[in-house]
Every structure is written in structure tokens, then in C-alpha cells.
Write a structure and sequence with these properties.
Helix content: 10-25%
Distance between the termini: 40 Å
Number of helices: 12
Number of strands: 34
Strand content: 25-35%
Strand order of the largest sheet: 7-8-9-10-11-12-13-14-15-16-17
Largest sheet: 11 strands, mixed
Radius of gyration: 25 Å
Shape: globular
């Protein structure tokens, strides 16, 4: 079936297996293409924006992902979980004379929300969001089971990793992108099981290598040339890794050396019948991105251990039958159009910020609830009689089958992950009726610029007391003591950009979640890949890539 996206006007295909899934979930086919659906869902997800504000219940000063201009109350995490308030006190009857979304968002703007999304235990990790089970971490987001990590996104089971994105089961990594099971790796991307190396790309099982790409189980390689141990050691003694200017020169040299490399149609391992990118141990993943250990999923991203789901963004961990949901996880089952629902939730429709609840419709902020509609408690019989009538009403208003509209996001568009994937100008955003947040410059730093020495060995402890200025934008940032200790121990120069600017530099190393039709550059077989036809890389199908590289 061919449809036209009502948002971007692109033609998109609905496969027979998609139709079967929609029928099973009792929802109509989507009216948006998968990219516009992703954009809509991710407009409800903000990770990196943190603000100082007070808890609206206790008055405690806290760090929150919500700025002070939000309409709803915001509670400190412990206060939110306490028994000192009850979200059911905001319950109301469903009004069949009004659109559902109007009623839902009126409720949303009254129910308290958690200041940050954290899953305990969290120790010394106040400045982290969308994170769990972490210790001594700072400005880490979408991170689970991290320790002594700073300035990263999508860290999983990592220790002492800094300024990286999408890394798993790794330690002592710096400026790495899409790496797993790596140790003491720097300035590298798309690597697995590598250690004690610098400037690698698409390498597997390499050790003591410098400036290499497409290498497998190699040691003592320099710019893809085999060296003896003595030659390698002599070369490494010439590298002043603590010098900012020398590292920047090496980055440019490696980029020029590697930009014409052969690359595989998708980055991933051990996948069966799967299309997308950054996929590991998946079966029947169609248009999946950053997914691991999943089966029978489509149009999904950043999920782990999910089954039989579609348009599932972030989390997972034992989820099944999830449709058009954002940040739902920990053994959730049969969720439709939900946002931020955790821990053994089931049979929820149009719910937000829910925990260990089931059989609820249009509810917000409930814990261990059942048979509730707009936060009002019903009996099982009342609930089962009323929900079908509400769905029929929502169908007449054109709301049924659609995720929450971006116009109603609790965040400004430029605060969200949608902005990272599909950036828009302020003017473009406002023209769509979406919110935009201007940067607060009321307390802009006007002090002296601190000149940073080129070499980390010339940095004194006083640097952690100073305010530094980005060489790119003039915006300010700081170096924390733990960060300085890491740079000194591993001979890494101080960064010259703000953490957010460094994050966006790393994003440039990742392809967007857009699939293109191409042909393998070797055998001419049709392939689907995130490498657009105008990219400089030579793209092979998986079979030809393995033959060429291994």
C-alpha cells in the first residue's frame, strides 16, 4: 500500500506485515512517514537541557530537565515517589463534547512530573538525565550502568569514558563514536573489541594500532601498514598525545586518509533479515537504528530486547507489542501511543509518565494504577464499557491512531532530540506552530578569556576554577576536577569547545536515520543503507564487504 505523508508529502509504503501489526494492535495505518513519526515522538524527548529550579512540593533547590516556564508542577525525584501527593486527585470525567487531546493536555499541565528521569541506584550523578544505575557520572544522558563517565550519550555498562556517544561495555575511551567492548581507545568510531589504539575506524579486534580502518585482529599497524613492535613503539614515541595542536593535525590527516574507505551497507553484527544501522543481534528488524537483541521490530530506534513492536523509540528491556511509544521500558506489554511509561506496565493507551500500571487510558503520573481514565478511578466493568465509546469519539475528531502532537510537547523543539535529527531554524519551527526556546543570556559571562596552554602538562589545578570560552562560539564552559585528572593521566589535551558543541561534532560522525536505495559498488546488488548516494565512501553489501576486509 502506498500513502502520502500528510506532513512532508513524501510517498511511503505500508507493507503487508505492517497492516497485520496494525490490525493486531487495533489501530489504523499511520498518516505520517516513518521519519515524520520519529520526529513527532522525539519532540517529546529532551536529554541534554538541564535547569536550576525549586521543587514545587518541598521547595528544595534541584536540577531539572524542565525550565521554570513550564505550566505543570515539577517535583524532586524523591518527592515525586513519596506518598505526599496523589495524581488521582486530578482525575476528571471524560467530556464527549470536546476533543480528547484538549482534555488530556489540560490534565498533563496540572499533574506533577519528576525533575529528571533517573532509575535508582544513582550515586553522585545529579547532572545526568534519562539515566540509571550510575555512579560518579557528570552530564551523561541515555546512560545505563555507568561509572566515572563524563560528557556522553548512550553509554551502557561503561567505566571511565569521556566525550563519547553510543558506546557499550567499554572502559577508558575518549572521543569515541559507536564503539563496543573497547578499552583505552581514543578518537575512533565504529569499532569493536579494540584496545590501546588511536584513530581507528571500522576495526574489529585490533590492538596497538594507529590511524587504521577496516582492519580485523591486527596489531602494530600504522595507517593500515604492518609494522614490527619496535617500529610501532618508535612511532608512538613521536606522537605528543597531550598537545592540542598535534591531535588536531592528526585528526585532519586521518580524515583525509580514511574518507574513501570501503564501508558496509550497515554497521552491526550478528543480524538476521535486518535493515537499518547500528544493529546488533537482531532478527527481522526493518528500518531499525541503534537496536540490540530485538526481534520482529520495525521503524524503531535505540531499543534493547524488544519484540513484535513498531515505532518504538528508546528503552525496551523486555518490551513486547509496543506501538508509537517513546521511552517505555522494563517489561512493558501492549502499549499504544505512550510516553515515559516504565516497569511492568501493560494495556496502556495514550498515557504519559506512568509506572507499574495497567488497563489505563489517557492517564498521567499514576503509580500502580488500574482501570483509570483521565486519572479517574473506575471499576473493571465501567472501564471496559467506557473505553470503546471514547475511542469511537476520538475517531470522529481525527485523533485516534496518532501520537501526541508536537505542538503539545512539554519541551521547545530545539530542546529535543528531534532537533538533533531534523534541525529547523527558529522561523521554520514557529511557522509550524511548535515551541522554540531562546538562549538565556541574562547572566552572560563578561570576564577575561583564559588562554589555554597547548599541552596538558602545562595545565595547572587553577584551571578548574576558571571559566573558559569556546573557540567556536564564545560560549562558556568549565573543566571539573575529575575531568582534569582523566586528561592528565591519559595525556589528553583540554577541549576547546563547550560540552554541547563537542556533542554536535560527534553527531556529525553518525549518519542520519534515513535509508537510501543504492547498489553494491562491487557486485551491483540492490542495498538499503544510511549512506546517501553523494557520500564519498564506497559502499558494499555485507557479503562483498566481508570478502574484501576479512
Amino acid at each position: 500500500m502506498q500513502k502520502t505523508c500528510r506532513h512532508c508529502q513524501a510517498t511511503f509504503t505500508i507493507r503487508p506485515e505492517d497492516l497485520a501489526f496494525y490490525q493486531d494492535m487495533q489501530v489504523p495505518p499511520p498518516t505520517l512517514c516513518y521519519l515524520c513519526r520519529m520526529q513527532r515522538r522525539l519532540s517529546f524527548r529532551s536529554e541534554r537541557f538541564l535547569y536550576h529550579r525549586k521543587c514545587d512540593l518541598t521547595g528544595k533547590q534541584m536540577i531539572s530537565t524542565y525550565s521554570n516556564d513550564k505550566p505543570f508542577p515539577v517535583y524532586d525525584i524523591d518527592a515525586w515517589w513519596s506518598d505526599d501527593w496523589d495524581a488521582k486527585s486530578h482525575g476528571r470525567d471524560f467530556d464527549f463534547s470536546r476533543p480528547f487531546f484538549d482534555q488530556f493536555f489540560e490534565l498533563r499541565d496540572q499533574v506533577p512530573r519528576m525533575a529528571r528521569i533517573q532509575q535508582k541506584p544513582m550515586e553522585n550523578a545529579e547532572y545526568c538525565n534519562a539515566a540509571g544505575h550510575s555512579k560518579n557520572c557528570y552530564l551523561c544522558f541515555s546512560t545505563n550502568t555507568g561509572e566515572d563517565c563524563y560528557y556522553g550519550t548512550w553509554f551502557n555498562r561503561c567505566k571511565s569514558c569521556v566525550d563519547s556517544i553510543n558506546i557499550n561495555d567499554s572502559e577508558l575511551c575518549y572521543e569515541c563514536v559507536n564503539c563496543s567492548n573497547c578499552y583505552s581507545l581514543r578518537y575512533s568510531r565504529d569499532c569493536k573489541n579494540c584496545n590501546s589504539s588511536m584513530f581507528l575506524r571500522s576495526c574489529i579486534g585490533c590492538k596497538d594500532c594507529f590511524g587504521c580502518y577496516n582492519q580485523v585482529q591486527k596489531q602494530y599497524m600504522i595507517f593500515n601498514e604492518q609494522k614490527t613492535k619496535e617500529e610501532y613503539d618508535a612511532f608512538m614515541k613521536t606522537i605528543n598525545s597531550g598537545s592540542f595542536s598535534e591531535i588536531e593535525s592528526m585528526k585532519k590527516q586521518f580524515y583525509e586518509f580514511s574518507k574513501h574507505l570501503i564501508t558496509k551497507e550497515l554497521y552491526g553484527t550478528n543480524n538476521e533479515n535486518s535493515i537499518g544501522n547500528y544493529l546488533h543481534n537482531n532478527k527481522n528488524a526493518y528500518y531499525g537504528f541503534e537496536c540490540e537483541n530485538c526481534e520482529d521490530i520495525s521503524y524503531s530506534m535505540c531499543v534493547n530486547t524488544a519484540k513484535n513492536s513498531m515505532d518504538h523509540s528508546y528503552w525496551g528491556a523486555g518490551t513486547e507489542k509496543i506501538y508509537e511509544c517513546q521511552a517505555c521500558g522494563y517489561n512493558d506489554y501492549n502499549l499504544r501511543f505512550c510516553n515515559l511509561c516504565w516497569s511492568n506496565c501493560s494495556d496502556l493507551t495514550y498515557c504519559d509518565h506512568m509506572f507499574t500500571s495497567k488497563n489505563c487510558f489517557g492517564c498521567i503520573g499514576l503509580k500502580q494504577a488500574q482501570y483509570c481514565i483521565l486519572n479517574k478511578q473506575y471499576t473493571k466493568e465501567e472501564y471496559e464499557a467506557l473505553v470503546p465509546k471514547i475511542i469511537e469519539h476520538i475517531k470522529t475528531t481525527g485523533e485516534w491512531g496518532e501520537f501526541f502532537p508536537t505542538t503539545k510537547s512539554q519541551y521547545a523543539y530545539n530542546e529535543t532530540l528531534s532537533y538533533e535529527q531534523m534541525p529547523l531554524t527558529k522561523e521554520e519551527t514557529l511557522a509550524r506552530g511548535w515551541k522554540w526556546k531562546d538562549e538565556d543570556e541574562s547572566s552572560k559571562y563578561e570576564g577575561p578569556n583564559i588562554a589555554l596552554p597547548d599541552n596538558i602538562n602545562d595545565i595547572t589545578d587553577d584551571i578548574t576554577k576558571n571559566i573558559l570560552t569556546s573557540t567556536l562560539s564564545g560560549k562558556t564552559y568549565k573543566i571539573i576536577p575529575q575531568e582534569l585528572a582523566f586528561y592528565r593521566e591519559h595525556q589528553i589535551p583540554l577541549p576547546r569547545l563547550t560540552p554541547n558543541e563537542r556533542h554536535y561534532e560527534r553527531l556529525k560522525m553518525r549518519n542520519k536515520r534515513v535509508m537510501y536505495d543504492r547498489t553494491c559498488a562491487k557486485c551491483a546488488a540492490p542495498i538499503k543503507t544510511t549512506y546517501s548516494p553523494d557520500r564519498p565512501e564506497t559502499v558494499y553489501c555485507e557479503k562483498c564487504y566481508i570478502e574484501a576486509v576479512h
